[in-house]
Write a structure and sequence with these properties.
3-stranded antiparallel β-sheet; mainly beta; Immunoglobulin-like; 4-stranded antiparallel β-sheet; elongated
C-alpha cells in the first residue's frame, strides 16, 4: 500500500511541475488573443536596392511555418485582452489593414528622400497556427534609401 501511495505522490509531483498552457477563451465567434506563448517573429524581406522616387515593396513573413498569416494591421492597439472575430479575422478598433498575399504582408512605399528610416507604425500581424489558435505578432522594419543614380 505504501508503494502505491509513494508512486501516486511521485506522479502527482511530476505532473504538477509541468509547464502550464494558457486556455483559449471564446466569446461567441470571437477568440481572445491571450495565447501568445509561441516565439514567432516577423521577418522583413527587403529589396536589394531602395531608390528615391521609386515604388518599393517590402514583404514580411513569420519565422514559423506552423503559423499562417491571416490579417495585418497598423495603427492598432492589441494585447492579450483583445478579441479577434474567427470568421472575418477583424479586431475591434483596428481599421487600417495592410495587404496580405499568400501568407505574406506586403507594404508598398515610394520614398521621397534618401537616408535611414524605420516604418513609422507598429505592424500587428495575426496568424492562425496549425492548432487552429489565433495569435498576434508585432514588429516594424528599418530600411535605407539611396539617391537616384
Amino acid at each position: 500500500m505504501n508503494k502505491i501511495l509513494h508512486l501516486l505522490l511521485v506522479v502527482w509531483l511530476v505532473s504538477s511541475c509541468q509547464e502550464k498552457q494558457a486556455v483559449v477563451e471564446y466569446l461567441g465567434t470571437k477568440q481572445k488573443l491571450n495565447v501568445n506563448d509561441k516565439d514567432v517573429k516577423l521577418i522583413t524581406h527587403l529589396p536589394d536596392s531602395i531608390i528615391v522616387g521609386r515604388q518599393t515593396l517590402f514583404k514580411l513573413t513569420t519565422s514559423s511555418k506552423e503559423h499562417k498569416l491571416v490579417q495585418a494591421y497598423f495603427d492598432c492597439q492589441v494585447d492579450t485582452s483583445s478579441y479577434i472575430d474567427t470568421i472575418s479575422y477583424r479586431i475591434a478598433d483596428c481599421n487600417k489593414r495592410l495587404a496580405l498575399i499568400n501568407d505574406t504582408i506586403v507594404v508598398a512605399l515610394k520614398p521621397q528622400k534618401s537616408g535611414d528610416f524605420v516604418f513609422p507604425e507598429t505592424i500587428v500581424a495575426i496568424s492562425r497556427g496549425k492548432d487552429g489558435v489565433f495569435r498576434y505578432h508585432t514588429g516594424t522594419f528599418k530600411y535605407k534609401v539611396a539617391e537616384k543614380q
